[in-house]
Amino acid sequence: MPDLITHLSISYLFNKSLKAIRYSTLFYVGAVLPDIATRAVSIPYHPAEFAVYPLHTPLGVVLLCLLLSFFFAEAERKQVFISLIAGSSLHLFLDLFQKHLQPGYTLLFPFSWQPFEFGLFWPETIISMVPLWLVIIFVIEFRLWLKRI
């Protein structure tokens, strides 16, 4: 998986360039939500991976975002859901670019267990890009700060 810093950095760059996400914090939460929902359980207790795996599929993400949106006021639920699902969709899209020793992501779960991935890089390869993401974000924020002065 691209690490959480990469997911947050790319979602930040995406959000800054698009400026279309109303609840940007929830967009960022959505960008890490599939990994938080699955890895927080499956890493400390590996046998649970099978139970939480669906939360890292499109259908599972939609249901999780829908569930989370119900914790907000009724008037805000639609925008909350859109923000969460946009971030989560970006997350799943980025994950498709990695290679796996085991089968990749099952996009059509539960209708198909057929894995799919583009297979452009190994999961740990992206870690070397973290300093670049952080420098880019720093430069963008610094430029925005200079404009406000």
Distance between the termini: 39 Å
What is the 3D shape? globular
Integer average pLDDT: 85
Query: DSSP strand (E) fraction?
Result: under 5%
Main structural class: mainly alpha
Q: What is the element string, with H for helices and E for strands? A: HHHHHH
Uncertain regions: pLDDT < 50 for 5+ in a row? none
Number of helices: 6
Helix content: 55-70%
Largest sheet: none
Structural domains: how many: 1
Number of strands: 0
Radius of gyration: 16 Å
Structure description:
The protein has six helices and no strands. It has one domain (4-148). The protein has 149 residues and is mostly helical.
Throw out a few tags for this protein.
single chain; 149 residues; mainly alpha; 0% strand; globular
Summed up:
The protein has about 150 residues and is an all-alpha fold. It has helices at about 5-20, 25-40, 50, 60-70, 75-95, 130-149. It has six helices and no strands.
List the helices and strands and how they pair.
Blueprint: H1 4-18, H2 24-42, H3 49-52, H4 58-69, H5 77-95, H6 130-148
Helix pairs in contact: 1-2, 1-6, 2-5, 4-5
